[in-house]
Amino acid sequence: MEIALIGNPNTGKTTLFNNLTDSYATVGNWPGVTVNPKAGRLKGTATDLIDLPGVYALTPLTKDEEVVTLYLLDHCPDLILNVTNAGQLKRNLLLTLEVREFGQPMILDLNMMDEAAQQGQHFDLAALSQALGCPVVTTNARTRRGLAQLQAQLQAHPQPLAPLKLTYPPQVEQALQQATQALTNDYHVPAPLARWLSLQYMNQNQVVRRAAAFRNLQPLLEQRATYDAQHFEEQIFNTRLAFIEKILAHGQQAPATRAATTVSHRFDQLLTGPWLGLPCFILIFWLIFKLAFDWVGTPLSDGLDALLSGPVAANVNHWLTLLGALPPLRSLVVNGLLAGVGGVLVFLPQIITLFACIAILEDSGYMARAALVMDRLMQIIGLNGKAFIPLLIGFGCNVTGIMAARTVEQPQARLVTTLLTPFMSCSARLPVYSLIVAAFFPHHQAAVVLSIYFLGIGIALLAAKGYQWYFHTTESAALIIELPNYHRPRWDIIWHSTWDKSKGFLHKAGTVIFAGTVLIWALTSFGPTGFVTDPTQSFAAGLGKLSAPCFAPLGFDHWQIITALFTGILAKEVITASMMVMFHATNQTVLIGALSNYLTPGAAYALLAFILLYAPCFATLGTIKQETGSTKWMLWSLVSSLAIAYLVAGLINLGSHWL
Amino acid sequence: MIVFTNLLIIALIVGYAGWQLTKTFKRAKKGKCAACAYDCVLKKAAASRSDSAKI
Amino acid sequence: MIINALITLHHFDQLEKPVATRLHSLGLTEGSTILLLQRYPFHGPVIIESNHQRIALRYRIFSILTQPPRGKFHGNRTDW
Fold first, then answer.
1. Which domains does chain A have, with CATH numbers?
2. CB 3.0–4.6 Å: which of A121, A229, A338, B28 could bond A622 by disulfide?
3. Between C22, C43, C51, which is nearest A56 by CB?
């Protein structure tokens, strides 16, 4: 059996999903957390639960919203759990009606009952259930109230329900009946589905319209112009709204309190104040880097590094010698794997801190505010503030950032957002930043890293301006975004999200970083003459030295650094691993010492900027190709970011000579 | 014997690394990150959107 | 227009179709009354409240929805 969770954005579907299943999915307090459907097993049963992206209506405006309509048509789930925000039931019911018209068994869940109660709203559940013709339950997913009853309901065999039949204005009804009849007679579509399809077709549902064109459903295609000319979609909307107002008038008492007096609003006056909004945004990120680099992350990872490079490395070496391992194997394990993979793993504390901070931002509801605060700036470059959310998500991982760009409405803005995301400094770049700032800017670590992140944002904004000029877009990307109430972060959610992302990092350590390390070890240990003990005779040195002249204007022309940059395209963490291996560094301190001999602070900053911008990793390139559906854009992303990185790093290096 | 065991272990490590490298290429082609283990049928449905609606 | 003023929305037909659709699905329709909560300098976004939810809008959308009845509107508003 398959149960689908359908509901408006930010109604707590994913929180519910996590509570009802054994699996874990990312939760956030901003519209658009779930851009992909996620499947899980309902606890203690063989039933699949599908978490779908939040939609306001089955008529999709964005790419993630299309998924829901497609899913309904394709999968026809056995039971639909329609999750609504009880505090905003009126507008949530618009979607409910569409789903009820579809006719699959459905349970209506009024979630977030606490918010409704705070607003002084009460519902007559029996009347609601009767009017909509489906069971109604109430829950509060965040505090797990009502979940036991809901679970029992979900496990019971779903009762077949007759599709809801609203009475539309005579014109619409007549057209509906004609179309339904023609579809049932000539195309053998079951009558209830035919009615729903016709209705959605009239309502300008692009997915249904494409499907109808694909299946050549003439009765609908012929009437398209008539439907649109008579504004059927408006009549349909008005009928639905009137129906909702009627059924809510029974049960709901008009609330008297205003949201403006809530705690959320007071928070907002500070965090999104007209003048304080941007400074607050910068301050929040400064605090995050302060935590990651000065207060928590670095001290912990220094400890880990001391442990790994000291006792652990010595012991491993000792035992390997005892067991009769020959120098090449010892070199591979100690100088390759332990130095490289271990050298990246010791940055886990910094990365966990960053992930935890992002998780707190996501869970608290700040993301939507960041979009709002940035909107005026984004307007200048022809995007809207909402496009800023994918960019922020890109701070965790560019791949997920690009996926999140699906929530951007306009196709062109979506493409631009996708192309900008790689300029966002993902967590994989943190280890190498950490090394470089420790070597050159030991007293301003957080500030320097913060400046690199904002350099990324700045370059992205400039690039967006370029795209705007190229595409000749005029200002049209209109911002409309809900500002959800702030939540007090729930620690288990923060922990889950942080652990989930950190697990990803550990997984990478065992796969792509491991592979990259072995590759670079092989390149460093072998040369044209075979196994070499002097790394300057190796393939890695040859590759680095060959391309060194190109990098001379940027201020760094040492073969180790250049070859490390090449390996970074596998995954950005590999840059760190490669440097550890090629500099023959047993621990961070050695590498930091080596680096500070080779570079000037200006060149080091140029290197930071270059690493920030130079090329998306393989996974990101693949995602760009998949999401834009074109190899051309993928290649463009690679070439343009290389050019931009070269230019910016060159300018920084040049500038540092003048200072 | 010792040389053989040594070579075998090196070959195993390098072989695993090579296998992981090819896997990375393959995953990247599909637009997935090495960190994201989640595989989803519905994503494919969304990708081949034009011919998916079953009517 | 002043902060904390109650404003009635009109002229949904002057908006682009997707924008109007999205506003509709957020429960904002012709004749809805909203509360103006906050506005940003340089014609930045506007925060409004309706039915216990806070929504941020581009200034342009807001100004279309709140312009005086047709005929009296002169395009460039300076009273923000």
1. 2-155 (3.40.50.300), 170-251 (1.10.287), 280-472+495-658 (no CATH)
2. B28
3. C22
